[in-house]
Fold this sequence. Notes:
By secondary structure, this protein is mostly helical. Among the domains are: 5-84, no CATH class; 117-284. The protein contains 15 helices and six strands. Strand 3 (405-408) and strand 4 form a beta hairpin. Helix 5 packs antiparallel against helix 8 (175-300).
Amino acid sequence: MPYSYEDFERAANSAGLMKNFSSYDLDLARQHPEFGMSILSLKQDYNNAKTDEQRLLANEAANRLRSSYGNYTGGSDGSRYISTGLYENRIDDMLGKIGSFGQFSYADAPTYDNRYASQQQMLLESILNRPDFSWSKEQDPNWASYKKQYLREGERATANALAQASAASGGRPSSYAVNAATQAGDYYATKLSDKIPELYQQAYDRYRDEYSRKLSDLNAVNTQEQMDYAKYLDQLGQYNTDRQQAYNQYLNDYNMMQTYLDNLRGQSETDYNRGMAAQQARQAADQQAFDNALALYQLSGYVPDSGANALGLAAGTPTADQAYREFQMQQAAAKLSGGSGGSGRRSSGNAANSGGATADDPVARFQAGDYSSEVISQLLAMGYTEADLRAAGYAGNTTGGSRNEVGVPGYGTVSWDDAEKLEALGMIEMVGTDSKGDPIYRRTVRGANQQKNGMNLNLLK
C-alpha cells in the first residue's frame, strides 16, 4: 500500500523528528511520500547511533536517497541543499563535446590527368603544320623505275626494228630501218611520258591518305580522352554526393548535440523553477498553517498536533497550551525589548532601543521579573499599554483598585483566569480594549447556547 504525505507527517510527529527535516526534504517528501518514510527511518538510525561511524553511515545513506530522488544532498547534517549537479554535469559534458567537435573535413576531390595530352598535341601539330603538296618525277621512285623499264623496252624495240629492217634489205641499214627503229623507241618514250599524270595522282593520293590517317589517329585519341574525362566526371559527381551526405551527417550530429544541450538547460531550469515554486508553496502553506493554528487557538484555546507543529510547539503533549502561552510571553518580551514581536509605542528614552540594559532601565528590570510599581509606572509613561504588560507576563494592578477582575457579558465581573478560560472554551471573544487597556469581551453563539443549558462559572473550576 503506497504511503501518503499525511502518513509521513504523522510518523515524523510521533517520532518527534518533524523539526529535524529541512524544507528541501519536506518538499521532496510531499512529491514522494515513500522518500519521506525512508528518510525518517534513516534519521531515527542517526539519532539512535552510538558511534560517529554509525552516524556517518546513516547520513551517507540519507544523502544517497536524496540524490536518487531529488539530485541533491543535505551535507553533513542533512540541513543543507547541495546539488549533485545531475544536469550541470551533463551540460558541461555536452559543452565539452560541442567544443571539441571540430571542423568538417573530407577526403580530397579526385583530379583529372589527361594521359593523351602529348599525343593529341603532336598529332594536331602534324596536321596543322603539314607541308603543301608538291611532286617531282625526279624525286618519285616510281618514275625512275618506269623510266628504266621503258628505256630498256625502247632500246630493245629499236634494236629489233633495226634488225628486222636490215634483214629485209639484205643486211644493209637503210633509211627505212632507221625510221622503223626510231618509231619503236619513240613509242616507249611516249608510254613513259603517259605515266607522269598517273604517278602525280598516286603521289597526291598518298598525301591525302596520310592526312586522313593523322585525322583518324587524332579522333581516336580524342575519343579515348573524352571517355577518360567522362569517367572522371562520374567520379567527381559521386565524390560530391558522398561529401554532401557526410556534411549533412556532420550537421545532423552537431544539431542533435545542440538540441540535447538546449533540452538539458531547459530541464535544469524547469527543475529549478519547480523547486522554487515548491519552496514558495511550502512557505505559503507553513504561513497559512501558522495563521490557522493561531486563529484556532485564539478562538478555542485548543492546538492540535498539526497546529502545534506550525507554531513550533511540542505536539502530542498536554503542555501545548502552556507552550503557546510561553510563546505569547516571548512575543511580548520581544516587544518590550524593541524586537519584532510587537508594535507598541516607544519613547526616545527607551534604553533597550539604545542598546543599553542597566539597573536603571525599566525594560531590563521588567524582563528580570521586577514588577514593582516604580517599574510599571515607568513603562506606562514610556507608552506601553497594560495589555502589553499582561501579555509579557504581568498580572498585577497598574491603576489601583481591583484590576485582577474584568467584566464579562453574561457572567458579570470575573477573574482574569476565568475570563481566559471562557475565551479558550469559545464562550466569549475579545473585540478590543478600553481606554485603560482592559479587554472588551462579547458572548459568542456557543456561549449563549451553553448558558441556556445551565453552564455557569462553577464548571470552570
